[in-house]
Amino acid sequence: MNSISQIFLKFAYLFTTIVIITSIILSILSLLHRLNRKTHEFGILKAIGWTPSEIKKHILKETLVISLIGGIVGIILAFVINYLLTFISIQIIIPWEMGSSIPHFLMSNPEAPNIVNVPLLFIKPFTLSLIIILLLLVIAGIIGLWMAQKANNIKPVEALKHE
Q1: What is the rounded distance in angstroms from the CA atom of residue 147 to the CA atom of residue 23?
Q2: Contact, 22 vs 135, CB < 8 A?
Q3: What distances in angstroms separate CA 149 from CA 29, 38, 72, 80, 96, one per listed residue?
Q4: What pLDDT does residue 61 have?
């Protein structure tokens, strides 16, 4: 029974890792897409007199706030779903060798399954949540700096000719 639980635990870690990596990739792609759509606006802001440092601050603030709000909403949603899962219990049929000290041939009804109800636990990984938020902010900061550099290379004339 212990080896089966270890297999499920390893699968849970693998699945969690895949979910975290996928969410990081999706966060990066959504931030890049959002900032790529706004490069035209950054060219216009440069045309009206914004300095490169002001554009850089604006992009950094925007990416960090969006990432922080998205991360907090995601973690709250994960805690709510985790809490709702505690109302579910899993029934596990245990063989007589593990579930009873009486051999099956001495039992009154040896064909009756020995069932154990295992409730799902409510896990509160606050340290993991903090690490995820910090990682999300670092990634958002790197993307924000990269997009600020990209936005500062836009010539105002190019942005205004599309108006």
Answers
A1: 20
A2: no
A3: 17, 13, 27, 39, 67
A4: 92
